[in-house]
Amino acid sequence: MNSMYSDKTDNAYILLTPGPLTTSKTVKEAMLIDWCTWDQAYNAMVQSVREKLVALAVKKAERRTDYTSVLMQGSGTFSVEAVLGTVIPDDGKLLVISNGAYGQRIKNIADRLNIHNVMLAFDETKIPDVNKLAETLESDQAITHVAVVHCETTSGILNPVESISGIVKQYDKTLIVDAMSSFGGMAIDVDELQIDYLVSSANKCIQGVPGFAFVIARTEMLNSCEGQARSLSLDLFSQWREMEEIGGKWRFTSPTHTVYAFHQALIELEEEGGVNARYARYCKNQSVLSEGMAKLGFETMINKQHQSPFITSFYYPEHFDFHQFYNRLKAQGFIIYPGKISKCDSFRMGNIGEIYENDIHRLLKAVAAAITE
Predict the structure, then answer these.
(1) Sheet harboring 346-350: ordered strands across?
(2) Mean pLDDT of 190-211
(3) How far apart are CA 128 and CA 160, in angstroms?
(4) Nearest to 70 by CA among 204, 208, 186, 244
(5) Which residues, in sequence order, are CB contacts of 92 under 8 Å at separation 6+?
(6) What ranges in 12-72 are assigned the alpha helix state H?
(7) Helix (H) and strand (E) counts for the chain?
(8) Among 174, 177, 137, which residue's Cα sits nearest to residue 161?
């Protein structure tokens, strides 16, 4: 299927990355308008975005009043830090479940903020063992919060949030999920999964541009966090309170162009058929990519059972020069991503963004030409 916007992307390159990513021309055109942060029309648009995010995150309409959303300036990591620094009290303790660089980053943030924490680490190519999670929560009663990355873009592995949530809630702990690379690209119901705080970013599966991230939160829990923030700028509670009381107003200067582009991206998500339709497209992209790359001699790193449809890691074949390969693909109009796995040489290719099956077929021809050279 061709993109409904593919003839309007105006991109020199297709970005096969986990974000920033290839966006439609109509998303980019939304940034041609300048907005005042105090303007009522702009603030109303912010409120519309917030409502749409909650609707994406909570399937049952009658349950949506129990949740809220907060937009925060900066990259996704800024909002992860805002959550950790705001919702965990001084006497709290965080358990970080990690099987990649972004789980490790959560621990690094906690360390920098002097949040008492412990990490349950697993192999970067394996999913976390929920039995060890249960053992840890059983043996350490001081733990109050648990954080996990849903799609660990270090490798492209999709972690079992359903199983993890079941254990976390069995022990009555607060669950924080970094869904940076998955939210908007697959169904995630924070109510059914009992996720208390979910973090994602504008420039991922919703296909906006960089500039802000957002948090879907259980309203009752966020409302109890007043005065806990360890930062002025990254005070999640105060940002939420401002948006609630002044109808979409940000505390400090908001990235107006980026927000408006995101609003357009949400419209285009609906036009595509919603999250399930986008998930089907991403899955098809990933399937065509992995099968085509295998025929060209590239082995995927993650077991198919746990492979996400968002980004795929490939081992280096013998006598492989990544930088040469990268430049040859770039010359043909494709940008790929270096690997992040610590124990082996690899590279990554993303499937998210304004990318369709015909783009993947063109990529595979470019890969064939690059390795032939």
Answers:
(1) 311-315, 346-350, 337-338
(2) 97
(3) 8
(4) 244
(5) 115, 116, 144, 145
(6) 25-29, 40-57
(7) 12, 14
(8) 177
**Distance between CA 266 and CA 107 in Å, rounded?**
32
Q: Do 36 and 368 touch, CB atoms closer than 8 A?
A: no
Token readout for 365 is 């021809």
Residue 201 has pLDDT above 90, yes or no: yes
Strand partners, 96: 119, 147
**CA–CA distance, 178 with 215 (Å, rounded to integer):** 9
The mean pLDDT value for 355-365 works out to 96
SS3 196: coil
Give the pLDDT mean for 182-192: 97
**Cα–Cα distance, 33 to 171 (Å, whole number):** 49
* pLDDT value, residue 162: 97
For 165, the enclosing helix (H) or strand (E) is helix 161-170
Query: What pairing do the DSSP bridges indicate for beta strands 117-121 and 94-98?
Result: parallel
Answer positive or negative: Cα dihedral of 185, 58, 84, 302: negative
User: Model-level pTM?
Assistant: 0.95
